[in-house]
């Protein structure tokens, strides 16, 4: 049985890496799980894909995130500053008269800025275990390929192992289906809107860049999800009220963290910039990956073998 421990670095709410605010709420809070494993009466498999020839793929660039008053309140009655998933008051800007929050003070991975790229992915996720448990029977098989905005680099992300117990919040045993997270839920960063989700996974993966695995390319934390549309016609990240469940898209996120395993079969997250090798106009290498896939197909199969 795995032992999951909380790293001392979680004492801070946000990590500021290369001037970019990185929310720590990428995974769920670690607890000592002792209850018996809970299994659904019927396995639920979500299978999805995106063909490079059929739709657009977007690389999200660092930038400020506009702050929704439903999630973050007002300077007079602030909300959304919870440890690990929220935004501290010092990291927010206000309007001229100080009556409303406007944006984060620093760039984040949840901006309105993007670049069109080419890419494709395939995902099969099996949800068996309802909640976090070291012996979770959830499973994921994920592979994505895409290029950098300047066309100079190619990437391959592969995940074949779930993260069974979260380190900052629940990860539903590694795979969750038909649920809501982010935003006001307390599950995941509040910079993302409160998001109705068809399927989400938290896994441990490998990143290949230009045909090779960099030194920090292994044991990467990978979060993927298929959700209601959280981007408007201008591809701005919307507030809660404008989330559109008549459309869906896929999010792939590699935050700047790796999973560090211990000799006792436990693990923790350590700060580790994603080795994207993509240099931003300010001369800084982008330390995270946030890729959006549109025009996807999604199918559900029940009673599959995990």
From TrEMBL:
Q: Which superkingdom is the protein from? A: Bacteria
Q: What is this protein called?
A: Uncharacterized protein
């Amino acid at each position: 049985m795995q032992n999951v421990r909380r790293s001392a670095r979680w004492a801070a709410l946000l990590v500021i890496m290369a001037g970019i605010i990185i929310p720590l709420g990428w995974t769920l809070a670690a607890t000592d799980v002792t209850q018996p494993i809970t299994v659904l009466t019927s396995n639920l498999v979500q299978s999805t894909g995106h063909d490079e020839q059929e739709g657009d793929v977007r690389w999200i660039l660092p930038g400020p995130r506009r702050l929704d008053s439903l999630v973050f309140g007002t300077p007079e009655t602030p909300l959304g500053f919870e440890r690990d998933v929220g935004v501290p008051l010092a990291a927010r800007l206000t309007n001229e008269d100080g009556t409303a929050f406007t944006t984060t003070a620093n760039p984040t991975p949840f901006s309105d800025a993007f670049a069109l790229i080419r890419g494709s992915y395939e995902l099969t996720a099996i949800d068996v275990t309802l909640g976090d448990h070291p012996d979770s029977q959830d499973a994921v098989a994920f592979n994505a390929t895409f290029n950098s905005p300047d066309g100079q680099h190619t990437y391959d992300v592969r995940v074949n192992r779930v993260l069974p117990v979260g380190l900052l919040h629940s990860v539903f045993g590694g795979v969750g289906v038909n649920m809501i997270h982010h935003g006001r839920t307390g599950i995941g960063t509040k910079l993302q809107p409160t998001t109705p989700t068809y399927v989400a996974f938290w896994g441990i993966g490998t990143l290949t860049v230009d045909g090779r695995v960099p030194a920090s390319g292994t044991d990467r934390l990978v979060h993927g999800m298929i959700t209601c549309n959280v981007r408007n016609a201008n591809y701005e990240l919307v507030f809660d009220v404008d989330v559109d469940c008549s459309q869906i898209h896929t999010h792939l996120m590699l935050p700047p963290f790796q999973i560090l395993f211990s000799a006792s079969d436990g693990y923790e997250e350590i700060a580790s910039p994603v080795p994207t090798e993509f240099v931003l106009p300010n001369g800084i290498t982008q330390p995270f990956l946030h890729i959006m896939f549109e025009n996807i197909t999604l199918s559900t199969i029940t009673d599959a073998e995990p």
